[in-house]
Amino acid sequence: MSESMLNADISGEIIASFFPEPRERTEIFSFLKEVVDTYDADIAHMEVNPTLSKADIGKVLARYDFDGSVPAASVLTDVLDMMKHGQVQVTSPNYFGLFNPSTSFWGSVADFITGLYNPQLAVWSHAPACVDIEEKLIRYLGTLAGFDPLSSAGAFTTGGAEANCTAVICAMTRKIPGFAKLGLHAQVRQPVFYISADSHLAWLKIALQCGLGHDAVRLVDVDSAGKMDIERLKAVIREDQSNGLLPFMLVGTAGTTNAGVIDPLPELAAVAAEHDLYFHVDAAWAGAILLSERHAHLLSGIARADSFTLDAHKWLTAPMGTGIFICKDKQILREPFTVQTNYMPAGDDINADPYVTSIQWSRRFNGLRLFIPLAILGREGFSTMIDYQVELGLYLKERLEQHDWVVVNDTQLPVICLRDAQDRDVEPILVQVLKSNKVWLSSTTFGKRKVLRTCVTSFRSVTADVDHLVSQLNEARATLYPAG
Ligand SMILES: Cc1ncc(COP(=O)(O)O)c(C=O)c1O
């Protein structure tokens, strides 16, 4: 069978079917140019919520049984239609939502180049340039946090959850004697770690992934500002110690998901030192402000952490799937992840192979999504974007307060949580605004109270978009509560 295929010499056909020839490529590129230009012109005016129903999506997908072949033009048209109408437009300037950024054009260029060459970053010798690029980025970001570039290290991850999971594995390896060899059998005491009750609850999943279980996650109360309560933290640690548990890690959140609040990092660092806890900072979103000369001081204390998480796919405009774990000492990563194999190319003592310093094995070159824009725009380009968004957040706060909304959280970062000045239920307001399909925001709880949550996430958002958001909120409230 395979012999007759070889005799028929169909190899050219196979190659051309997986990699179209120049004429077809030219057509595809001119189609894609049109796609990019249309996206750029339309994104500000597009409906922010999906308008395709499940049935509509099903109808499109029914065209694909994968037995037969569908022309490329039809496939691309269907896919783009689903992108335009089958998802929340998180890159819209009217998206004041979760930490999903507008992505830089350079991030998409990086994805294309990476897809084309498909470098394998598991070992340094397979992709030395790519591994060195990622290492340079990690050292640079670590330096902004105050880490020594000669000893710091890190790993690009799929996101904040993987970076935080990396931190737990590193912490267990460092602080639980025998853990790397025996796992949790190394200890009769239950290991526990501390985070604030307002932290991102992927920590619960991480505890499960690490074999610790949810009870290992000590959710420490926050104060009225939403920061971890230090006195409460000390009390919980003391209680756990006297109950025979094994505290091994403390996590500060720098930029909580619901309210953009930064835990008191210097005080947390002191508690970690006093109790010999591994200290990690989850700066998945707000870590970006390290690039801002004006605002980097908000993260002071981060230099005392053993490691921190910074997602380039949050405030740094990289496409989804770009998290970063950065640690102060390269041994932190080598201890848990080093394995010996006979089928991987041999490494050397100088260049760490990423597969022995991270959770992943095969590794995509996601760092390029940050390298290209950072190289082109420089720190200043990012800093200008970040500082502008911080100011836009303050502008939004002002506008809300002028219109009888009460801002309930106190942060200099552009996450604004609000309630109605007369304490009317905000949930119907949210439903009404989302129904208009012109802006996107969400709700959360802050201080046990239901509030609306807005966040400036798009480098495309300007003051007019903020005005529009406020007028949408005002209109919805006036419609629902006419007497007020
Ligand atoms: C503070 C914080 N940490 C961690 C995460 C999880 O990151 P990811 O969704 O990239 O895994 C998030 C997500 O929003 C977050 O806000």
What does this structure look like?
The longest helix is centred in the last third of the chain and has 35 residues, at 368-402. The strands form two sheets. The protein has a seven-stranded mixed beta sheet with strand order 1-7-6-5-4-2-3, sandwiched between helices. Strands 8-9-11-10 form a four-stranded antiparallel beta sheet, with helices on one face. It has helices at residues 2-7, 11-18, 22-42, 54-61, 72-85, 105-117, 128-145, 160-175, 179-182, 202-209, 230-242, 265-274, 330-337, 368-402, 427-436, 463-480, and strands at residues 153-157, 191-196, 217-220, 246-253, 278-282, 307-311, 323-327, 405-407, 415-420, 442-446, 449-455. Helices cover 43% and strands 12% of the residues. It has 484 residues and is α/β, with parallel strands linked by helices. It has three domains: 11-88; 112-373, Type I PLP-dependent aspartate aminotransferase-like (Major domain) (Aspartate Aminotransferase, domain 2); 377-480, Aspartate Aminotransferase, domain 1 (Alpha-Beta Complex). Strand 10 (442-446) and strand 11 form a beta hairpin. Bound molecules: pyridoxal-5'-phosphate (PLP). Residues 99, 159-161, 164, 200, 202, 253, 255, 257, 282, 284-285, 311, 323 line the site of pyridoxal-5'-phosphate (PLP).
